[in-house]
Design a protein that fits this description.
single chain, 213 residues, alpha/beta, Rossmann fold, Arc Repressor Mutant, subunit A, 2 domains, five-stranded parallel beta sheet, 53% helix, 13% strand
Amino acid sequence: MTQAESPITVAIVEDDTRIRRTLEMVLARAGDCHCLGAYRSGEDALAAIPALAPSIIIMDVNLPGMNGVETVRKLVERGVSSHILMLTVHRDTDTIFDALAAGAVGYLVKPVQSAQLLEAVHDVFGGGAPMTSSIARKVVQAFRNAPDKPKSSINLSPRENEILEMLSKGFLYKEIADKLDCSYATVRTHIERIYEKLHVHSRSQAVAKFMNR
């Protein structure tokens, strides 16, 4: 990472002390990541994370009290736009789907190796959405079956439609910026506006809406 580049800011929500400290250590050793805070419960996360506005939140599914899915839902309701990456012990498709539908962008299955964690963090930061194809299909199908907003409320510009189509094909933000000959920040701004217009909170939701249209 050059001096001109900013680190990827991350917040951790994990009740297991050993795992939480390991995640912090892995991020600390990465030259381009910075952990803003680590929390042991959803309640603690809700109290602190909105003000921190990290780029990425690593969220455990099985938290004491408020679980990870509900925490994601409440963070999104409070306007938190961080990319949320779920941590889960089992490949429970229903729980993973609930988390993605609530606004998460992907998930990792424990135990997570250091290289795997950092790869996922970089993938999500670059606009990726780490998940299996079976989960992705389930998300798309659910949004196809859900009542949609009136089409008059969806008024994307030609450039926004172009970017959304690229997202649906799996392009990362940097790849979209290169193809459109614009900055990474410009692409992120366009995508934030797309999410607002489509009434969604994540890439998977936006792509599902695009495919449904």
